[in-house]
Amino acid sequence: TGHLAPVVGTLVIAAALLALTVAAGVPRIEGLDRTRPFVVEREFERDGLTDSVAFERGLANLRNLGIFSKVEGTWSDFQPVVRLREKWTTIPIAKFKSGGGVSAFTIGVFDPNVAGQFLELGGQYENRSGTHSGVTWFREPRLANRRILLGADFWYTNRVREEFLGDASRGFAGDRRIRLHAFLEPEVHRLVRLHAGAEWLDDTLSSGLLELSDDQPAVKRPSLASQSWVSSVGATLGRIDQDIEIQQGATVEGRWDVSWAGERWNRRFVEAKAFWLAAPRLNLAGRGFWGSGSARTEFHDWRLGGLEQVRGLPEDFLVGDAAWYANLELRGTAWKSDWLRVQTVAFTDFGGLTGFDTHNSWGVGVRLLSPKIYRLNLRLDWAQGHQSGISAGLQQFF
Fold first, then answer.
1. Most buried one in 118, 122, 195, 301, CB count within 10 A?
2. Nearest to residue 84, comparing CAs of 20, 149, 27?
3. Count of CB atoms within 10 A of residue 21's CB?
4. Hey, is 144 helix, strand or coil?
5. Which of 241, 236, 318, 320 shows the shortest CA–CA distance to 277?
6. DSSP secondary structure letters along 302-345
7. What does the DSSP 8-state code read for residue 145?
């Protein structure tokens, strides 16, 4: 027994040291209910628990997940502590948006934290000015527990397209698209994300494709059809950090799409976004976009309108193979509570086709956000422009 005592004592000390090492290798996490601990732990870099600066970067990563209403941490050489409060993430989708003479409502459901593993599944139906569309999607933002986003979606969309000749309407036609899409986006550096994607597109355009109302005269044109296999490559530089209604940082994204089977075409775009916290409750936001294509195509041109690009324009008002637009917003947080954030917004939008006249608008709006519910942000804007009126939707305009 006397010979065993040193051996037993050595094993006990080794086990204690191992326990301390393990404890020091993971943060102590407080406040989790549905989310699995590994979802939190993997947001910290290898030195994130041995370096206080890297620990703060890990906390910023957790805020950017969007599934926590509170992220706080206390640094310690022994074992840092992370205190969290989870948002409700099984979200029914019921939204309405309008702008540019088009109104749409959407119903569905999605969850960005399925089974507490930060996986996203969703599906929705959209009625856009009487047409019927739907999409289902899947996202795995941390493929193999690495910072790699894997995504896939299936789209079936119908649109009534109004065509313009200058400011005058030429009439309406039905536009149908079936789209299968998959992509992979590895984060190779905290400021660099690459993109590779593939998709199949099946497009039809015809004045007889969809039922038009009495006030939507059919455009006089031949029916068109197109199928394409498309590959895309791109990259995003920079980083935008968010904390409920506040965003800070900047990104520049570039993408190049090439059709290699079926109808041949290619197009590319560059989009920049920047957010600056000018004061504790004052957020300045800007977006700029430029895109071009290899040739004019009915299905792959750039389209500018009031629903998503330039408030105060009719939807699809500008159509061409090269386009640009820019948006600037000043967002002020007027009210803060545990359940509600109220933002007031002043904005201006610009856009046009390369070589053609520029259109612009300005206006004011309000945002209603909830820190307790994932991505709940109601938007209402009034725009003064070519077609003045209300622009509404879910989420920020950009």
1. 118
2. 27
3. 9
4. helix
5. 241
6. EEE-TTTT-TTS-TT-EEESEEEEEEEEEEEEEEE-SS-EEEEE
7. G
Give the per-residue SS3 of 7-46.
HHHHHHHHHHHHHHHHHHHCCEEECCCCCCHHHHHCCCCC
pTM for the model stands at 0.78
User: Which DSSP helix (H) or strand (E) runs through 147?
Assistant: none
Amino acid at 240: I
Q: Which residues contact 311 (CB under 8 A, 6 or more apart)?
A: 99, 347, 349, 361, 363, 381, 383, 385, 391, 397
DSSP-H helix ranges across 42-137: 52-65
DSSP 3-state of 5: helix
**Percentage of the residues of the chain whose pLDDT score is greater than 90:** 61
CA distance 248 to 239: 8
Q: How many CA atoms lie within 13 A of 259 on its CB side?
A: 20
The answer to whether 202 and 156 are in contact (CB under 8 A) is: no
What are the pLDDT digits (tens) for 75-120? 988 889 999 999 989 988 877 766 656 778 889 999 999 999 999 9
Record the tokens describing residue 124, joined without a space. Answer: 């929705």
Query: How far is 255 from 275, CA to CA, in rounded Å?
Result: 21
Q: What is the pLDDT of residues 190-248, one digit of tens each?
A: 899 999 999 999 999 998 888 777 778 888 778 899 999 999 999 999 999 988 899 99
d(CA 233, CA 186): 12
CA 232 to chain centre: 18
How far is CA 256 from each of CA 36, 91, 197, 251, 292, rounded to the nearest angstrom? 37, 33, 10, 17, 10
Residue whose entry in the numeric block shows the structure tokens 């030429």: 170
- Structure tokens that stand for 297 in this block: 């195509």
Torsions phi, psi for 4 (to 5 deg): -80, -25
DSSP per-residue letters across 351-382: EEETTS-EEEEEEEEEEEE-TTBTT-EEEEEE
> Which residue's entry shows tokens 């305009």?
397
Residue ranges in the chain modelled with pLDDT below 50 = 2-3, 5-24
Radius of gyration of the CA atoms of the chain, in A: 25
